[in-house]
Write a structure and sequence with these properties.
CATH topology of the largest domain: D-Maltodextrin-Binding Protein, domain 2
Helix content: 25-40%
Largest sheet: 5 strands, mixed
Number of strands: 15
Distance between the termini: 7 Å
CATH class of the largest domain: Alpha Beta
Strand content: 5-15%
């Protein structure tokens, strides 16, 4: 990828990015991200605790493209803001290998304060995703798991497996969807709307593309097997785009039931999963699922249990503000925020938090305890359950077996996917190139990306 240097006009709303002694982070209101919201919350906390000097300077840009250009130019020159997150358009996989980020192990080990971070209290599998060559180049704060949930009766009608926690993979998907693709008229497969909180059809194809890349060895393979899988997933994508008017017996008011995998049910958080799949009596909810069944989401193979990082914090290797980084890191991984964003803090009624999973083990345990609470439509306590639904138990089992962690929950945020894979795939989806040409273009463009 060739970076073209262009003039930047009105780059940010403040008009300057001079070092004020505060940590800096770039964002745009046009493309809001969770890290920005967390920093705003942290700044309010600093104000309420009379530590104004520890606040983070949020530098706003007019749009995402301008921010991305500025970031790439500054980073290539050895500069840029103090903090980065995986919401930003940077080649993080390559930057990690190039040592562009601060080793956070060094920061934590050199901390002599009483509230020093103890990483043994956190999910080691998720945290270790940030370790490369013995150095911790980023810290995940929250994560999600890609799972799909549907109706047992619908699965049975298409001769699809109905066991909880079924391992859906790129290798067995042709068998799973054989009957469905023969006559899919009643149901779309999965939403392809970018604003959906669930998994989109495009992301499924990007997941396949990313399994073909080895960043560490700088190799890729888009062979005949890949092309066959691409064609099948594209058929599922096409079925995902079918309009409601083309789906038989489906009304707009019941649109959620028009999907094999309604996105509203594909949640990572046991609190949400339990509430949505085992609704208390008297709750009026448009989407009716009699017997929900959970699948893993198009894994690389049957032994893979995936997770994806929702919020990752990177620190510029050139920063000289270690004390301020340490303070923010403790806030990010602290008990209050970890519980707040996952729906177990008293500020939220259960289910009111986001679809996150915390990296703090005690917060995850609180997540499971909260899932046992029977909560009404208006947050009223209906008494604890004696056991969780089979769907929620299958979700928890997946979480406990996680052995593969992706850097992006949404691959549209990935620098590689955004700038290399998606334009090529779009040509294929639009019919401008065939599967052979698509695979060839992905192969050549990916090799250039890996080696540049």
């Amino acid at each position: 990828m060739t970076l073209t240097l262009i003039p930047l006009y009105c780059a940010c709303s403040s008009g300057e990015t001079a070092d004020s002694g505060q940590l800096t982070y770039y964002y745009t209101a046009e493309y809001p991200d969770d890290m920005t919201e967390t920093i705003k919350r942290y700044n309010r906390w600093c104000t309420s605790h009379s530590t104004e000097d520890m606040k983070i300077n949020l530098i706003e840009f007019e749009n995402y493209e301008t921010m991305s250009q500025r970031l790439n130019i500054e980073v290539m020159a050895g500069g840029g803001p103090d903090l980065f997150s995986n919401y930003q358009d940077l080649p993080f996989e390559k930057m990690i290998q190039n040592g562009a980020f601060y080793d956070l192990n060094e920061l934590i080990e050199n901390d002599t304060s009483e509230d020093k971070l103890d990483l043994s209290l956190y999910n080691q599998t998720i945290l270790d995703a940030g370790v490369y060559d013995g150095k911790r180049y980023f810290i995940p704060a929250f994560f999600s798991v890609p799972v799909l949930v549907g109706e047992k009766g619908v699965f049975e009608a298409y001769d699809m497996p109905t066991e909880q926690g079924y391992r859906l993979t790129f290798d067995n998907m042709d068998e799973v969807f054989a009957d469905y693709l023969q006559d899919p008229s009643e149901y779309r497969c999965i939403t392809n709307e970018a604003q959906s909180s669930g998994i989109t059809a495009d992301n499924l194809i990007l997941r396949l593309v990313n399994t073909q890349i080895d960043y560490e060895n700088k190799t890729c393979s888009f062979d005949e097997d890949f092309k066959e899988k691409l064609e099948l997933l594209t058929a599922l994508r096409k079925q995902s785009e079918i309009s409601l008017s083309e789906a038989s017996g489906v009304s707009a008011s019941d649109s959620g039931n028009a999907y094999l995998f309604p996105s509203i049910l594909s949640h990572s958080n046991p609190i949400w999963m339990e509430w949505l799949t085992d609704l208390p009596e008297g709750v009026d909810f448009a989407l009716k699922v009699k017997e929900p069944v959970l699948y893993s989401c198009f894994e690389k193979d049957e032994t893979t249990y995936s997770a994806a990082i929702a919020d990752a914090l990177f620190v510029n290797a050139a920063t000289k503000k270690e004390d301020k980084v340490s303070a923010f890191l403790k806030y990010l991984l602290g008990n209050h925020l970890q519980n707040l964003y996952t729906g177990t803090d008293e500020e939220y009624w259960a289910g009111g938090g986001g679809d996150y999973l915390p990296v703090l083990n005690s917060a995850f345990e609180s997540c499971i305890r909260t899932a046992y609470n029977r909560i009404g439509a208006y947050g009223e306590d209906l008494g604890d359950k004696e056991e969780l639904s089979p769907t929620t138990m299958a979700l928890i089992d997946h979480i406990e077996h996680i052995n593969s962690v992706d850097l992006y929950a949404d691959l549209y945020r990935s620098n590689y996917d955004r700038n290399v894979a998606i334009p090529i795939l779009q040509n294929y989806w639009d019919g401008k190139i065939d599967a052979d040409k698509c695979a060839d273009d992905l192969s050549s463009a990916t090799r250039i990306y890996l080696l540049e």
